[in-house]
Write a structure and sequence with these properties.
The protein is 67% helix and 9% strand. The protein is of the alpha+beta class. Helix 3 runs antiparallel to helix 4 and helix 7 crosses helix 8. The longest helix is centred in the middle third of the chain and has 73 residues.
């Protein structure tokens, strides 16, 4: 008897689950179909409403185009840096490939959204043209003029938007081809990376032996002059290689102090100070490297030449400053003291010739400079 009751309960549970899943799959499609019929129903919209909707959707399409262009500029920057790293016979960081994959997904998502707006604009334009023809049916001459004018305007608008879509699709396909070529070369580069690691271990052992052989008198003279010793510089270079940061930062020695500077810029989206996920690993490794040293850190935030006027960012100065501040927050979050930081924001202005870039994507960046205590 108990077995029969359990069997009946199990059968009822299965029927309930199947019924809920059916409602979840069927109901949205039915609602979407009814909504699409209602949105283009001529009885629900006045001519003024149609004009406003077409204007609104065109604005959304232009906004999506700007987002796609910004993402493509960032992909161009990633490809340029990947080519530069390859030319210097170094290994391309795996985070670059992950970032390209995410940006490719975002472009596909935005293109689907844009195609929906294209269809809506096309349907509203057709509705506007049909209404123009109906309103002018009592005058043959006016009807002919309005028909020709409406068709020409609709065709021009359709051709313009679909030409833009075709050009951007070609550009996206070329980027995908370049990405596939890079993925094929990744296996070759992994073998080269293993050989480089073995050679770097040998060089580090030789460097340690040379450093330990330095006379004690020479070390004391260098400490009295308050300069950075060869031992510190070599040790720091070894730790940078060990942390996998050799592609991100470089060492400079002025004779009185040792400096680190980011060679790959920290980039930001258009009109935003949010830090991308691919930089999280870099900030964690960078902070772990600096914890053992007494340093002062300067972070500079930049913006492109396009002006911005919003409640959150009144100008490019505030946008650049918040970008620099967000970099500081990431490093503090990973263990560094807040008192060692200074931030600066030139906004859209550059005070050195090397600070300017030919592409806006490179201008939306932050740079980090570390000064070691002498």
């Amino acid at each position: 008897m108990k077995t029969i009751k359990m069997f009946l309960r199990l059968r009822f549970l299965i029927i309930a689950v199947l019924g809920v899943s059916f409602l979840l799959t069927v109901t949205p499609s039915v609602w979407s179909t009814e909504y699409s019929k209602e949105i283009i129903n001529s009885n629900l919209h006045k001519p003024e409403d149609l004009h406003e909707r077409v204007k609104d959707y065109k604005g959304r399409i232009e906004n999506i185009n700007e987002q796609i262009k910004g993402i493509m500029d960032e992909m161009d920057w990633l490809y340029l840096n990947m080519e530069r790293i390859k030319d210097s016979e170094r290994t391309v960081p795996y985070s670059f490939f992950v970032s390209i994959k995410e940006k490719k997904y975002n472009i596909r998502r935005l293109q689907k959204e844009r195609s929906r707006y294209y269809k809506l604009v096309e349907s509203y334009l057709e509705e506007m043209n049909s209404r123009i023809l109906k309103e002018k049916k009592y005058s043959i001459q006016e009807k002919t003029i309005q028909e020709q004018k409406g068709k020409s305007e609709a065709e021009i608008q359709k051709n313009t938007y679909f030409e833009k879509l075709a050009n951007e699709t070609k550009r996206f396909e070329s980027l995908l081809n370049r990405y596939s070529d890079l993925m094929e070369q990744k296996t070759i580069e992994s073998k080269r990376m293993a050989e480089q690691k073995s050679s770097e271990k040998k060089e580090s052992i030789q460097t340690k032996e040379l450093v330990e052989a330095k006379p004690v008198q020479q070390t004391m003279m260098q400490e009295n002059k308050k300069t950075i010793s060869t031992v510190d510089k070599n040790q720091l270079y070894f730790e940078i290689q060990k942390a996998g940061l050799s592609d991100w930062i470089e060492i400079t020695d002025s004779g009185t102090c040792l400096r680190l500077k980011t060679t790959l810029p920290i980039l930001f989206p258009i009109g935003s100070a949010e830090i991308a996920k691919e930089y999280k690993s870099f900030f964690m490794r960078f902070a772990n490297l600096l914890k053992a040293y007494e340093v002062q850190i300067m972070v500079q935030g930049y913006a492109d030449i396009d002006p911005i006027h919003s409640k959150k960012y009144p100008s490019n100065f505030e946008l650049g400053a918040i970008r620099a501040a967000n970099v500081v927050h990431e490093l503090v979050k990973n263990g560094l003291k807040p008192s060692i930081f200074k931030i600066n924001s030139p906004g859209k202005y550059r005070f050195t010739a090397n600070g300017e870039s030919t592409q806006k994507a490179f201008e939306r960046r932050a740079e980090v400079t570390v000064v070691f205590a002498g």
